[in-house]
Design brief:
0% strand; mainly alpha; single chain
């Protein structure tokens, strides 16, 4: 079925949307505290990078 002015399609979309027809199942985050884990990982990566020759070159220390 084609709606030349798209009003029918819009109406059907709105009805399905309001009825919860566009939901998806999300997998639960099983990490104890993902934010803290991510921050620790990123902090370590920065600390490791600071000790590299590339960092020293960028900072003009070489």
């Amino acid at each position: 079925m084609i709606d030349e002015n798209a009003e029918g399609a819009t109406r059907r979309f709105e009805e399905k949307f309001r009825a919860g027809g566009f939901t998806i199942a999300l997998s639960p985050n099983t990490e104890a505290d993902y934010t803290a884990t991510k921050q620790d990982r990123d902090t370590k990566a920065v600390q490791d990078f600071i000790g590299t020759d590339l960092f020293n070159e960028i900072m003009g220390k070489k």
